UniProtKB/TrEMBL annotation:
Any one Pfam family match given in the protein's UniProt record, by short name: Abhydrolase_6
InterPro entries: AB_hydrolase_1 (IPR000073), AB_hydrolase_fold (IPR029058)
Recorded coiled-coil stretches: none
Protein name: AB hydrolase-1 domain-containing protein
Ranges where the AB hydrolase-1 domain occurs: 11-250
Organism per entry: SAR324 cluster bacterium
């Protein structure tokens, strides 16, 4: 009897967290062939123009494994929408994990802040510039990051995966794999306009109910802009795929099976 081929899954990561940081999440998808771009928007030619321009990077990488279930977290969720808009036949399902897509009033405010160079006040961009980008070793990076409140809910295993994959070796220690200028640029170019073509897409939107990026006004807007997406709440904050990888995997698989 011939074994059935594994279903394919394309994962798109959050800003500042290389895809391999999600290893613990991926371990729960042994019945899937998981693929990803390790660092979205990292090009030899320089910084990407915007988030939409990163979709080509994803679609090129997917040429050998279409169609796939598409799953994206934060930045990755929005890039996934742009990729699906360009090539909807490449995806059998679309699952967005806490995408930073805001209400019209918030986007108007962000547009004004951006116009006057004040985006740092409301996005994580300022924090990115203050990030330490090099350590003497992976061990020192782990020990220092373990003390930070941002990583408090990361298990030691997940934090170790982030440190191992988020920092690359250099002559005098380790440095960030995703450069700070790229992470900063991506926060500065957060999408302020929604594509009308998104209304033709279908899938699932999973939002964090505890200090996630989407408030009720944002979710109301997304019900109008993405009418084909069913909403699911998950307890936790914006980083729930890394803070709760097993629970997140269960939700994703349930949503995949609910459609197939």
């Amino acid at each position: 009897m011939t074994d059935q081929p594994l279903r394919k899954l394309e994962f798109l990561h959050a800003n500042g967290f290389p895809a391999s940081s999600y290893r613990r999440l991926f371990q729960n998808f042994k019945d899937f062939d998981v693929h990803f771009v390790e660092s979205l928007g990292q090009f030899e030619r320089g910084l990407p123009q915007d988030w939409e321009s990163i979709a080509d990077q994803v679609l090129t990488q997917m040429n050998s494994h279409q169609p796939s279930v598409g799953v994206g977290h934060s930045l990755g969720a929005v890039v996934l929408l742009y990729a699906a808009e360009q090539r909807p036949e490449a995806f059998t399902n679309i699952i967005l994990l806490d995408p930073p897509l805001f209400s019209f009033s918030k986007r108007a405010s962000l547009w004004l802040l951006k116009k006057f160079g004040k985006m740092d006040r409301v996005t994580p961009a300022r924090t990115t510039l203050r990030r330490r980008e090099a350590f003497s070793s992976h061990l020192e990076a782990f020990d220092q990051l373990r003390k930070r409140s941002f990583f408090r809910k990361f298990s030691d295993e997940v934090l170790s995966d982030y440190v191992s994959n988020g920092f690359i070796e250099q002559a005098d220690g380790v440095k960030l794999r995703i450069p700070k200028d790229l992470e900063y640029h991506l926060f500065q170019t957060i999408p302020l306009h929604f594509s009308k073509s998104w209304k033709g897409l279908k899938g699932h939107l999973v939002f964090a109910s505890d200090k996630g990026v989407l408030q009720q006004s944002d979710r109301n807007e997304l019900r109008r802009s993405l009418p084909g997406f069913q909403h699911t709440a998950v307890s936790g904050g914006h980083m729930f795929p890394l803070e709760q990888p097993e629970k997140t995997a269960e939700i994703i698989k349930k949503l995949i099976n609910s459609r197939n």
